[in-house]
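Dear colleagues,

I hope this message finds you well. In preparation for our joint manuscript, I am sending the alanine--glyoxylate transaminase (Actinokineospora spheciospongiae) sequence together with its predicted structure, so that both groups work from identical material. I would be grateful if you could confirm receipt.
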Amino acid sequence: MADTEQTPLIDRHRAVLPSWLALYYRDPIEITRAGGRRVTDSTGATYLDFFAGILTNAIGYDVPEISGAIRRQLDTGVLHTSTLYLIRQQVELAEKIAELSGIPDAKVFFTNSGTEANETALMLATQFRRSNQVLALRNSYHGRAFGTVGITGNRGWSTSSLSPVKVSHVHGGYRYRSPFGHLPDADYVAACVEDLREVLLTTTSGDVACMIVEPIQGVGGFSSPPDGLFGAFKEVLDETGILLISDEVQTGWGRTGDHFWGISAHGVTPDVMTFAKGLGNGLAIGGVVARGDVMDCFTANSISTFGGNPLATAGAKAALDYLLDNDLQGNAAKMGARLSAGLHDIAAGNPVVGDVRGKGLMLAVELVEPGTREPDPAAAVTVLEQTRAHGLLVGKGGLHNNVIRLAPPMTLTEDEVDEALDALGHAVAAVGEGE
Ligand code: PMP
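The corresponding structure tokens are as follows:
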């Protein structure tokens, strides 16, 4: 025992956790405390968190309104009993999400993660349409279970090729490296619609169940198609009743600034939406909101032991109230504009930045070999290490692992935006200096 305790945590981690469980940083950090938008590690170093625990901490850390609601639930003694019984806050949260969704006659099913939410959505759509054919976007990520890995369009995250669904991938999400990326918006949309029609004709038997899209591709490097693309797709889908599923796991809850749901920028209401991450502000909760007829298409029983449990829904309800009461969507728009302007300034002086993109507080820079579009994943490692040295945590991602992702808590302040830009400016300059 004494020996184990002397062994560094990273070595113990490697000994008992899977080899494919990726960790950030050459010298990985252990977070031991957090408050506001800052986290502190086991060495006492404090960081401004611009990845918010992969977008889970939408509001920030240690928010009294949320921890108070969780504590009050703990004080009842009911951490969890069973989702076979009525749970008041689960019903209230579902009512709120159904209303916010804009989906007519909407119903909500709670899960514990985004993966489970998407698995449920796939099962609903395939059952409703009696077809296992699914359309997804190239460069997408939808989760890490059997069906969701199958539809994910990014080899780095496709841990198995033995999917139960038949998937066809279409262009659209990742414009920077799309063959149509150089076209003006309207022509780009038209080219993607043509590609969709061709895929429907050539790789499916026509009776497709659904199309699933991320309004902004999260793991794929915050790749953002022009507004309206998914509205144009929906017109094609509607010709044969193909359902549209919007995966709002990263883009939901106002993060994109201009809309509460990412898909709304496309002028369309989907048939199904999935959500997770930010809703719980750190608690494990996800779910599906869908048209009532789609949600009710199962005839056999189906339940989640923990999905919608009293603790998670008490916390999530408080988090959602906080988000709405404090107009965090409005703040995401304002702070996002300031951050985006600063990123464009950094890009102007640094040819290693090939693209600045995203919306609201979901912004990214793609790093390339100067003067080319060649992805530079080593530069992203440098930026990650350098920002850490400057007290800032950011995310990495993209098909080629060369994208720096910024998604801070939506309570962010102007001073924090400027602080982060300062750290990012130094980090990107360090790439040019070959550090
Ligand atoms: N969909 C999207 C768009 C995601 O970004 C993620 C997680 N990165 C998931 C689904 C899966 O969510 P979870 O990790 O909670 O299972």
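For the figure legend, we might mention the following. Residues 113-115, 118, 141-143, 214, 218-219, 247, 249-250, 276, 286 surround 4'-deoxy-4'-aminopyridoxal-5'-phosphate (CB under 6 Å). The first helix runs from residue 2 to 6.

With kind regards,
E.M.
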